[in-house]
Specification:
163 residues; 2 domains; 6-stranded antiparallel β-barrel; two-stranded antiparallel sheet; 3 helices; elongated
Length: 163
């Protein structure tokens, strides 16, 4: 008996294209089972814990700062995912090194600019691998990110992770 007959049927029973489609469906089903049952990150049910961390934003304009309030949700600009709620806002006048006439540098105020530190609280997983908001957004101290709220968008860095 031939493997494929003159009509293109495998073992005389099933069309070879249908057989390939069936193999593809089986491969996709096995891949999905592996991802959702076999991988450690997605297979275990972990309890979400509150994580507090601070975000530092430098030299923003005052009128932009007025658009941020405690209780606002903050999002990662890249993914669009919510990464917590702003619980505290600390603002100080922005400072910058200024070159003086005698060749020295002194710290001086930057006109119409504010440095802001947001304290954010979100639900996440604390593990030996790090801190993960919503199980996927990794918090790394010192990392530069783009953040946004409903009325505000900025570049900032994660300053401290307070747990």
């Amino acid at each position: 008996m031939k493997l494929v007959n003159e009509k293109g049927k495998l073992f005389g029973k099933i069309n070879i294209i249908d057989f390939c489609v069936i193999l593809l469906v089986i491969a996709l089903a096995l891949g999905a089972a592996y991802k959702f049952r076999g991988l450690e990150k997605t297979s275990t049910t972990t309890t979400m814990e509150p994580i507090r961390y601070t975000i530092e934003v430098k030299k923003i304009r005052d009128y932009i700062f007025q658009n941020v309030k405690e209780g606002d949700l903050i999002f990662d600009k890249t993914s669009g995912n919510c990464i917590g709620t702003i619980t505290k806002i600390d603002a100080t006048p922005a400072k910058e090194a200024v070159l003086c006439i005698d060749g020295t540098y002194n710290m001086g105020d930057v006109e119409n600019r504010i440095d802001v530190v947001f304290t954010v609280e979100g639900e996440g997983v604390i593990s030996a691998d790090g801190y993960f908001i919503n199980k996927t957004y990794e918090l790394v101290s010192g990392s530069e990110r783009k953040f946004m709220t409903k009325y505000f968008e900025c570049d900032g860095s994660i300053k401290d992770i307070l747990e």
